[in-house]
From TrEMBL:
InterPro entries: Caps_polysacc_synth_CpsB/CapC. Keywords: Hydrolase, Protein phosphatase. It catalyses: O-phospho-L-tyrosyl-[protein] + H2O = L-tyrosyl-[protein] + phosphate. It comes from Clostridium algidicarnis. Belongs to the metallo-dependent hydrolases superfamily. CpsB/CapC family. Pfam families: CpsB_CapC. This is protein-tyrosine-phosphatase. The keyword Lipid metabolism does not apply. Its EC number is 3.1.3.48. The keyword rRNA-binding does not apply.
Length: 252
C-alpha cells in the first residue's frame, strides 16, 4: 500500500503542526501497512509557496528520524494557469520528483482552464493526477467533467476517508460509485494530523477489495509504477456499472 497524499511536512500548511506530530502520523502509516508515504504539502500560487530547499531539509529530517517506510517527495498543487511555467522554473515538483503531478481543484468549482493546464503539462511530458475529485461538488453534480479528464489520461487519486464516510454520506456514495466504475487509480490518506484527519488508509483498500476486486489488484500492480514515474497499465472505465452509477447521479 502506498499513500500518495499527506500533509506530514511540519508547519508549512494546514497539516502537521510539529515534528513530533509528523512522526506520529508516519508511525500510524506503518501500523496501517503503508510502505511509502508521499509528503504532499499544499502549493497554492500566491498563498502557500513552499521553497524547494526548505522542503528538502524538512523531508530529510523526517527520513532520518524514521525507518521501514519510504518518505517520498511531492506536492498538492492547487490548479493555476502558471503551473507549467512554475514547473519549467523548477519551483514545483512531481511525486518522487518524477512526472506525475498531484493537482487539486477548488472544492466547489471546475475552473474553465483546467483542461488547458493539463494539456500544457502533458506537452512538458508530465502526467496530471487529480486529487480527491470525489470531494469536488462540480464533478459530483456532473461526473462527465471527470470522465473527460480520465479519457485524456488523467489519473484519479481518491481519499481513503471518502470511502470510510469521513466526509459524509453523499461523498461516500459518490466515491463508491467511482470505485465500481474503475474511476480510482491511487489512494491517499490526505492526513493532516495525528487525530481525526489522520493517515489511516487500510480500511479504504479493504472496501475497494470487497467492491471491485479487479480494481484492487490493478491498484496494487500499478501504484509502484506511479511512484517510479512509469506509465500505468490501461484501466477501462467499467461500463457494466454504468446504469447503477447514473441512477445514483440522478438522485443528486
Ligand atoms: Fe491534501
Amino acid at each position: 500500500m502506498i499513500d500518495f497524499h499527506s500533509h506530514i511536512i511540519p508547519s508549512v500548511d494546514d497539516g502537521s503542526i510539529s515534528f513530533k506530530m509528523s512522526l506520529n502520523m508516519i508511525e500510524n502509516s506503518k501500523r496501517q501497512g503503508v510502505k511509502a508515504i508521499c509528503a504532499t504539502p499544499h502549493f497554492i500560487v500566491g498563498e502557500y509557496e513552499i521553497d524547494r530547499i526548505e522542503y528538502e531539509k524538512s523531508i530529510e529530517s523526517l527520513r532520518k528520524a524514521t525507518s521501514d517506510i519510504k518518505i517520498v517527495n511531492g506536492l498538492e498543487l492547487y490548479i493555476n494557469p502558471e503551473l507549467p511555467y512554475l514547473y519549467e522554473k523548477d519551483n514545483i515538483w512531481g511525486i518522487n520528483n518524477k512526472g506525475y503531478l498531484l493537482i487539486e481543484l477548488p472544492m466547489r468549482d471546475f475552473p474553465i482552464y483546467t483542461k488547458d493546464v493539463f494539456y500544457e503539462l502533458r506537452l512538458l511530458g508530465l502526467n496530471p493526477i487529480i486529487a480527491h475529485p470525489e470531494r469536488n461538488i462540480a464533478m459530483l453534480k456532473d461526473p462527465k467533467l471527470l470522465m473527460d479528464l480520465v479519457h485524456q489520461g488523467t489519473l484519479i487519486q481518491m481519499n481513503a476517508g471518502s470511502l470510510m464516510g469521513n466526509y459524509g454520506d453523499r461523498i461516500k456514495k459518490f466515491a463508491e460509485s467511482l470505485v465500481d466504475k474503475n474511476l480510482a487509480h491511487i489512494l491517499g490518506s490526505d492526513g493532516h494530523n495525528d487525530d481525526k484527519r489522520n493517515t489511516n488508509i487500510k480500511e479504504a483498500f479493504e472496501i475497494i477489495k470487497s467492491r471491485n476486486l479487479d480494481l484492487y489488484k490493478w491498484i496494487l500492480n500499478n501504484e509502484e509504477k506511479v511512484l517510479d514515474g512509469q506509465e500505468v497499465e490501461k484501466l477501462e472505465i467499467n461500463l457494466n456499472k454504468r446504469k447503477k452509477m447514473f441512477s445514483f447521479f440522478k438522485k443528486n
